[in-house]
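During the practical work, I selected for study one protein's amino acid sequence and its C-alpha cells, as given directly below:
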Amino acid sequence: MGCCNRRCGLLAGAVFGALLAVLGGILIPAGNSIIEGTVKKEAVIENGTTAYDNWVSTGAAVYRQFWFFDVTNPVEIVENGATPVVVQRGPYTYKTRYLPKENVTFTNFTVTFLLPLGAIFEPSMSVGPEEDHITVLNLAVAGAYSLTPTTLHGVVERLIKSTNSSLFQRRSVKELLWGYYDPMLKVTTGLFSPYNGTYDGPYTVSTGEDDIANVGKILSWRGEESLTFWDDKYCNMINGTDASSFAPFVDKRKPLYFFSSDICRSVSASYEDSLDLKGIKVYRYTLQPNTLAAPNVNPDNQCYCRDPKVTKNCTMAGVLDISSCQGNKPIYISLPHFLYGSPSLRESVLGLSPSPEHHDTFMDVEPITGFTLRFAKRIQVNMMYGPSKVITVLKQVKDYTIFPIVWLNETAALDHETADMFKEELFSRVETLEVLQLSLLGIGVSIFVLCFTMYCVVRCRHSPGKFV
C-alpha cells in the first residue's frame, strides 16, 4: 500500500509539474498578447493614454545649441580673393519647444494641431552672452546677389555702396539669430526671423486608433498632403512621423521615416546599434549615408538638385538647396562642417573639421513603444554667393561658394525621473510577466522530470523486468 501511495504521489507530482510547465508555456504567447495589446492601447494618441500625455505636452526639455563660424580674414577675402578662414564659436544655447501644442482638434482617427515656436536664452549653457559679436557672411548681400538678375547687379552695387555694406558683417548672436534691421534691404532680417510667437504647421496626423501602424504619421502639413517645393512627386512626398515617436514594436531591419519642416523634406534613418539609456534598451538610428548624396550616387536625389551651375552639374554631395521653401533666398542645408560632403566644400572654406561623433544626427528609440527617448538633430545653415564683374565686393571671388554661417544641435533626452516612471509603468510589468512565465515553465519541468524519474525508479524496484 505504501509503495502504491508513493507511486501515485510521484505520478501526481509529475502530472502537476507537467501542468505547471504547460501553464507557463501557455502564458508566453498569452502574456505577449497582453503586453502587445496594452502597448498598442497606450500608444494611441487620444485623451487618457500615455502617448497622448507625452504628445500634447512639452515633454523633456528641448535645447538648441548654436555654433557660429567666425570669419577671421574678411578684408583679405574681399580685396585679394583669399580663401576664407573660419573659427567655430559656441555654443549659444536656447530652450525651445517649451510650449504645448495648440488648437488640438480630433476628427475621424486624426488630430490637427499647431506647434508654437519660442526660444529662451540659457546663459549657463552658453560660452558667452547673446551680445557677443561674430563676423559672418552678410545675409543681405548674399541674398541680393542671388535674387537679382545679373543685368541688374549695378543696382545691387549702388545699394551696397550707399549703405557702406560689404560681403561680411559683424553682428551680435541675438541679431543674427532672431533679427536686425538691415540698412541695405530696409527690413528686419535674420537667420530665424521671425521666430518667437510664430507657429509650425498646422499638422494633421493619424491617432493610430484605427491602425496602430500609422500612429503619428503625418497626413498633411499646412493643409497639404504633399509639399510644393520640389518639381517632383517623389521629393514632394511627406513620409513618416515628426520623429518624436514611431509605431510600437520597432523592427530594426527596417528604416524609420520622418518629415522635418526645417529642411523642407522627408528623410529616413537606419538602425546602427543597441544602447542602454538610464536602464532602458534603445535602438540608435542615424541618417542613412545616401540622404545627401549626389544624384549620380543616389538617383533619388536628382529632384533636389535645383541649380546645376552651383552644384557642379549636380555632382556635389552633402548640401541641400532649400531656397524654394525660403522665399528663394540662397540657403543651403548640410550636416555640420559639411560632414559626408564633397571635399570641394571644405576646400573653399578653411577651418572645418567634420566628425560623425559630434556632427551626425541620431535618434534613440525605445523599440516596444516606439517613443524617441533621446535625439540630436544637427543641421548647418549655409548661404551661397558667387563671382560678379559689377559688384565690387564680389569681383575677387573665383567660383560659387556655399559659405557656412552657423550649425545647430537640437537635442533632448528623458530625465531620470521620467526614466524611472517609464520603467515602472511598462518594463516592471513586462519583466514580472516574463519572470512568472519562465518560473512556471522551469519549476513545472523540474517537478515533472524529478517526479517522473522517481516514479520510474520506484516502479522498476517493485516490478522486476518491467519498465512500467
In short: The chain is about 30% helix and 30% strand. The radius of gyration is 31 Å. Residues 61-414 form one domain. The chain has two domains: 2-41+425-462, 61-414.
